[in-house]
Automatic annotation (TrEMBL):
Compartments reported by the entry: Cell membrane
Domain ABC transporter as annotated: residue spans: 5-232
Name recorded for this polypeptide: ATP-binding cassette domain-containing protein
InterPro entries registered for this protein in UniProt: AAA+_ATPase, ABC_transporter-like_ATP-bd, ABC_transporter-like_CS, ABC_transporter_ATP-binding, DrrA1/2-like_C, P-loop_NTPase
Membrane topology reported for the UniProt record: Peripheral membrane protein
SMART domains from the UniProt entry: AAA
Keyword Cell membrane: no
Signal peptide boundaries: none
Species in which this protein is naturally found: Actinoplanes aureus
Gene Ontology MF term list: ATP binding; ATP hydrolysis activity
Keywords of the record: Antibiotic resistance, ATP-binding, Nucleotide-binding, Transport
Classification lineage: Bacteria, Bacillati, Actinomycetota, Actinomycetes, Micromonosporales
């Protein structure tokens, strides 16, 4: 995996309202990057700047270290927030047409379209006009449209909104396959549970500012609480009286504790061992939702 897309110190105002403030983050190939933030945080504006639909006031977006060109952008796939398929045109015809617009031969466009619609479980609806599809299926058709030309970078604005859980799983699997084949995938979402499950990397934005960015593992370590989960051989209630320890939860031999900053975890472990067997002792990693709450405050 390599860093392919760099968003560097991007600022953008609408009128006198600055909606992006020095936005910087990187996207790597072969990975799924989740772009997370509340409504109005600036996700769509950032994505539109990456795609060249909108200009930045200052700052740069580069692809493999070089400025964007039209040719580079033609190798990107974009699923905008305002879905844009023609209601009266058959799904497959539309996806083939978009593939052709991105430079595919008719044969390749048809082959990719058929494979994608099957993969997205829309094969049987290929001949139906878009307006006859349910909203969830229209969404799958949009995803097919963004993927038909095998883009090197996929930018998806809220690709999971409006999908039922089974459809989310299908789309997740397709995006994973694309990443495994080397594409870089950037998607926005406010569904933290989906992002938690899906993404390798994250950029968290609030009020136009990136509050945290990096791999999920890095962020979970970075924002680790001083919280530990402990399991001992007998009742763990003695932890209540241990200096520097706050008991958060107690369930017989199992406990969750917070340590004061000055408290050495190994000291607490030794105290536990002095009382008998220790079955488990380790830090509790924060969930993405917890990190999100912490960094957007
Ligand atoms: N063309 C525009 N003119 C004026 N203000 C705009 C324009 N586009 C976006 N904004 C404002 O910029 C801010 C950021 O919007 P943006 O759509 O980027 O947020 P978002 O994080 O994608 O939120 P959502 O999930 O609601 O789409 C919002 O306050 C929005 O009202």
């Amino acid at each position: 995996m390599t860093t392919v897309l760099n968003v560097d110190a991007v600022n953008r105002s609408f009128g006198d309202r600055q909606v992006l403030k020095d936005v910087s983050f990187a996207v790597e190939s072969g990975r799924l990057t989740g772009f997370v933030g509340a409504n109005g945080a600036g996700k769509t504006t950032t994505m539109r700047i990456i795609l060249g639909v909108l200009a930045a006031d200052t700052g740069t977006v580069t692809w493999r270290g070089a400025p964007m060109t039209r040719a580079v952008r033609s190798r990107f796939g974009y699923m905008p927030e305002e879905r844009g398929l023609y209601p009266k045109m058959a799904v497959a015809d539309q996806v083939v047409y978009l593939g052709r617009l991105h430079g595919l031969s008719t044969a390749d466009a048809k082959r990719n379209t058929a494979a994608l619609l099957d993969r997205l479980e829309l094969g049987e609806r290929a001949g139906d006009p878009v307006e006859k599809l349910s909203l969830g299926n229209q969404q799958r058709a949009q995803i097919a449209a963004a993927l038909v030309h095998d883009p090197e970078l996929l930018v998806l604005d809220e690709p999971f909104s409006g999908l039922d859980p089974l459809a989310v799983d299908t789309v997740v699997a397709v995006l994973r396959e694309r990443a495994a084949a080397g594409a870089a995938v950037l998607f926005s979402s406010h569904q933290l549970e989906v992002v938690e499950r899906l993404c390798d990397d994250l950029a968290i934005i609030a009020e136009g500012t990136i509050r945290a960015a990096g791999s999920r593992t890095y962020l979970r370590e970075q924002y680790a609480l001083p919280r530990y989960s402990v399991e001992v051989g007998a009742d763990a209630g003695w932890l209540r009286d241990e200096p520097g320890v706050t008991l958060v939860e107690l369930d017989g031999p199992r406990a969750v504790i917070d340590l004061d900053p000055a408290t050495d975890d190994q000291q607490v472990l030794r105290a536990a061992l002095a009382r008998g067997p220790v079955r488990a002792f380790g830090p509790v990693r924060p969930s993405l939702a917890e990190i999100f709450r912490e960094v957007i405050q």
